[in-house]
Amino acid sequence: MSRVQLAVLGLAGLLATAPAAQAQVRPYIGFVYPAGGQQGTTFQIRVGGQNLDDVHEAIVSGPGVRAKVVDYLRRMGAQEITLLREQVNEVKKGSAGKEEAGLRLIERIEKRFTENVQTPACTSIAALVLVEVTMARDAKPGQRELILATPRGVSNPLVFHVGQLPEVARKPMVASTRQVLGKEELALRVRPADEVEARIAVPCTMNGQIASGEVNRYRFDARKGQRLVVSVQARQLVPFIADAVPGWFQPVMSLSDANGKEVAYSDDYRFKPDPVILYEVSKDGQYVLSITDAIYRGREDFVYRVTLGEVPFATSIFPLGARAGTPVSIQMKGWNLQQAELTPPASDAGPGIHPVAAVKEGFVSNRLPFVLDTLPERLEKEPNNDRPHAQKVKLPVIVNGRIDRPNDWDVFAVAGRAGDTLVAEVYARRLDSPLDSLLKLTDAAGKLLALNDDREDVEAGVNTHHADSYLMVKLPADGTYYVHVGDVAHSGGEEYAYRLRLSAPRPDFALYTVPSSVGLRGKGSGAVSVQAVRKDGFAGPIKIGLKDPPSGISATPVSLSPTQDVTRLAVRTTLADTSQPVRLAIEGVAKIGQRDVAHAAVPAEDRMQAFLWRHLVPAEELKVLVFNPSYQPPAKRVRRTPAPTPSETKPPAAAVDPKTGKPKFTKQQVAGRLRQLKLLFEDGLLTEDFYDRKVAECEAVL
Question: Are residues 621 and 663 in the same domain?
Fold first, then answer.
């Protein structure tokens, strides 16, 4: 097991030992449907999760998008279902069943019956929050984050998109039921015939949820010569599903003509699970797009967004980066890019990854990562396929190159001295290049000194194939050394770009904090885990603390020793509560050489893939909410008439079982039943009379 795997597992261990109160109250969301909408529209979404009682706020990051909680459909137990059935029967038998108010109550209860599943396939997504989202016409398109807040905490974030095209959304799924071995067909969703295939107008974005064994189809008209882009967001929306193999929704797309002949197919896009179809229409007519899961799994968190149309789509850029502070010229290849403009990073942008996109007639294409660094840069020059033709470079340098044909090798000659340490690092897969690099170091005689295929990188986020290579070698003698770059599968092409760093070690570090939100009891404390990723052999101490914390929130700095990669930072507050989640920033400072180097910690979620592997999924901000543990939200429903006093209520005969003559409930059961009655009443599912009688039954036992 690698050091990075041990570090992530160690981080998980720290999370497991976090205060129980904090772990229990943190809200969790597992899917958002639909996971986006069009600019200038208002629509309703469903958020599935757990620990969402009294949810009162939905927040979408960035300007131009407002979200409002409309309703909370918690998962109900068998006793609550029985109470509601009694209520429905009573209304139907009485005069109220013929009145408008009674009919509305029956309709509301029956809707709750439809939404509630007694044996959900996944309890962690069985509770639903209905949210109304309003997007401004000028809301910046692209990826955002959505979180929910309750009086006791803030949820994990999930991806939410601001789209530019008209949107189509299929009817939302009811919670999937747990499958029983040998009776799996009983858990399959049966769609009405008119919902199997949808008619759409191109261009548009389609939203759907895939149920077990289900195929969704979309029929549309197309003209000969149209260059259609069909791109899916699925794994991008829910990156990891803990109890699914391979650990995410693996969509498969097929495009057929009016005769049912398949004209295009895709089950992934290069190394990414979300497929893309690029198809030039061969003849006028109707076409049908089908989407399903690769092995016909499905559940309500198998959410997708499919964008279809003659929209700009970038397949590659070159170079993959540049030196910060210098003029940038980027070549972009792809579909429908005629007259499109690419906007490079700002002239004052600092080192790091900056997404770039093409804009055509106001439509923004998919984004590709572009990295800025501080080292000198140069381009690879052919021919440089072997040692006799190696391209000479002077250290330090970053070479921007391509493995531009199958079986190609790029070889670079560097001068080295005995005892010097040479670092060779490839950036390709981390920058969305399909290159699966192989890195070799040889001496002047051709002797192999070091070789590396893949190096695991916790900073890769949701990328599970760590395909970039890395070498750090102490040179044995003065002389010329040769660095060879190739592709493991002997593939190549124009899009197989890379950045090769050749330099002495540049010791550095990065920090990640888990989780991405914290709930603190008023005038209390909590903790976040902090993980360090050490680079180029850096083994110094790192001092960690809060940077410019909000008033009333503090933390005593902690230090990571040279042999330590994970620690916990205790966060305290003197506040009684905060009305809104506030942003918290954590920073690490270390002495590297003669400089003090500071880096902000990246908030992240610790996520499990396919029952075993753990990954850090970065988030935009670290949120903290201070709550009053004794706070009780105001009643959602106010009685129209005063509640009867015990003296006004006759002892109900229903409180006693007529067969045994004993009370229906024990004293231990009464507290839970009273809570159920209160929740159902506040949800507007019980009449005052029915509620009063059932409460009286409970009080008769006390």
Answer: no
Task: Give mean pLDDT, residues 118-136.
Answer: 96
| Any domain includes 181 | no
Q: Residue 23 pLDDT > 60, yes or no? A: no
Answer whether 444's CB lies under 8 Å from 479's CB.
yes
In a domain, 85, yes or no: no
Residues 548, 656, single domain; the answer is: no
**Same-domain pairing of 617 and 670:** no
**Triad 188, 193, 196: Cα angle to 5°:** 70
Q: What is the pLDDT of residue 187?
A: 87
- What average pLDDT score do residues 315-319 get? 97
Residue 434: asked if its preceding bond is cis (omega within 30°), the reply is no
Q: Are residues 536 and 613 in the same domain?
A: yes
Partners of 146 in the β-ladder: 60, 158
Q: Which of 470, 494, 518 is the last residue of a domain?
A: 494
When divided into structural domains, the chain yields a total of: 3
689 near 102, Cβ under 8 Å? no
Looking at the structure, do residues 423 and 513 belong to the same domain, yes or no?
Answer: no
DSSP E strand stretches across 106-192: 127-135, 142-150, 153-154, 158-163, 167-169
Q: What are the tokens at 288?
A: 């049908």
Domain that holds residue 475: 377-494
- Domain CATH code at residue 423: 2.60.120.380
Pick the range with the lowest mean pLDDT from 227-236, 313-322, 460-469, 589-598: 460-469
**Rg of the chain in Å (alpha carbons):** 30
Give the CATH number for residue 563: 2.60.40.60
- Find out whether 255 and 262 touch, Cβ atoms under 8 Å: yes
Please report, for residues 534, 536, 561, 565, 597, the alpha-carbon distance to residue 590 in angstroms, rounded to integers and kept in the order given: 11, 14, 11, 13, 5
Name residue 11's beta-bridge partners.
none
Polymer length of the chain: 702
SS3 377: strand
- pLDDT tens sequence across 249-306: 999 999 999 999 999 999 999 999 999 999 999 999 999 999 999 999 999 999 999 9
Res. 227: pLDDT tops 90: yes
Q: Is the model's pLDDT at 1 over the cut of 70?
A: no
Are 513 and 620 members of one domain?
yes
Three-state DSSP at 188 gives coil
473 within domain boundaries: yes
Q: How many CB atoms lie within 10 A of CB 695?
A: 20
> Measured between alpha carbons, how far is residue 32 from residues 122, 140, 154, 205 in Å?
15, 20, 16, 16
**Same domain, residue pair 485 and 521:** no
Is residue 523 in a domain? yes
C-alpha–C-alpha distance, residues 238 and 58, integer Å = 18
Answer with the one of 461, 494, 527 that is the final residue of a domain: 494
| Lowest model confidence (mean pLDDT) among 30-44, 527-541, 633-647 | 633-647
Residue of 247, 114, 107, 234 lying closest to 173 (CA atoms): 114
At residue 667, the 3 state secondary structure works out as helix
Are 677 and 629 in contact by the 8 Å Cβ rule? The answer is no
Specify the amino acid at residue 266. S
Bigger pLDDT: 94 vs 211: 211
**Given the structure tokens 């499905």, which residue do they identify?**
298
